[in-house]
Predict the structure.
Amino acid sequence: MEPIYVRQRLRPSRYAFLVNEGDFDAALRAVSVNTALWGGIYNPIVPLTPVDIRDVLLKEFDPDLLVNLTGADLPSDLAARYEYRIVSADALIRSDDRTNRRELGLGFHIRPLLRHVYETEVRFSAGPTRAAMIEPQNAPGWPEFVAFVYGSFRWLPDLDVNFGKIFQRALRARNVELSELTVPPDHESLLSPLDFTGLGLRLFGDRFGLSSHVIFIGDHRNLADLIEFWNIRATGRFVVFTPIACYRNFAPVIRHAAEMGRHPVYRGVQNDVELHQGPAVAAEVFDAVCDWIATLGFGQLPRHHRFPRLASQTEYGGYSDIAEVQAVEGEDISLLYNGQMTPIKMISPPYVDDPIEFLGRLAWSVELTFIGGSSDLDVMLALPREPVIERLTHRYVTALPGEVRIGRRGLVIQRDGISSTVGVTPIPSQEVIHALFRQAGMEPEPSGPGQY
């Protein structure tokens, strides 16, 4: 009998929203859904083409589930690789069994968070809050830009839940009318709906591909630029969008980002905000804006020019360093005996005071990392991230195939109810090795002495 230490990390499930290149409506639907999801600010939007960029984003963000907003079946390679992790657009809406009210059917929506903040912070305070609903002027391209930058509930599917009104009522949020090509007043302190989706989440992980702070210089009416801005911010960086059409108007947010980004990392090394070129911006325009930013008193800041489409995957866009998020940590001990483990007591999510009320209506993820098991070489607790091994796990975890996968730190289990335990059985080493060989097109056989 050997003790196995189980580290748990509870976080919002990470979704990748798949859209067709150039499909503004689908991208805005993804923006609005993410504005209503806990952790939505960290979910990428992934165009199906170009394929090399698509594959980089999916590999580096490592989503738990893929939401198909393309209006058609996904390409066969994606369908095979993410066989049990694809969610259709129909799943965005759920009908409540008791009331038949149409609700958001994806992830962990923000209503429990809003209730928690209201009950603990807002209810007994008469003072103003930082929360604000940004109301954009109805100029061509401006509402879409504001949605990508600050969040919007405008493009949600037809629901019987008004997230905008709930956000305003719970946080006493004020309306901020925003004229075209301007910066909101008090932009440094505003809490936008999209910012709120990061409530209670801790970011960790190294971010060497880009600075921790980025000034993104792009075309505010170009979808490729908006998506690139969204995905850089989804890595966990602080990013401000500077439209080339009116970059001088955005001097206040540029100064704010530059001041926040200039700080020591460790002795002799200083972090500086980095200037990033949008896909639709010509090199000479980008350099002109960068030269103007240098006149604001920060000198020549590092410039991140775009790489050609055929550049290596690790070079493209700086996506190789995705910040991980975490809400709750926990530990448990399971006993390994005769190839079996005792059930693991699972940690519970925050903000859910009444588990029965939200049973089956919220979903989150728990990552399990196992430490120990070295005395029994006939079983494996640390598994390679290969599709064939992921399919093996479906037989050894008490969860449906779409609810368990292999992540960067171990098993990732999707949860939609607060149950006390989950059963995990170590996979026999022989099965793992045989599966890997067969995936490579080879049939393994034991050697004479029985060594593998």
User: Anything to note?
Assistant: The chain has a mean pLDDT of 89.
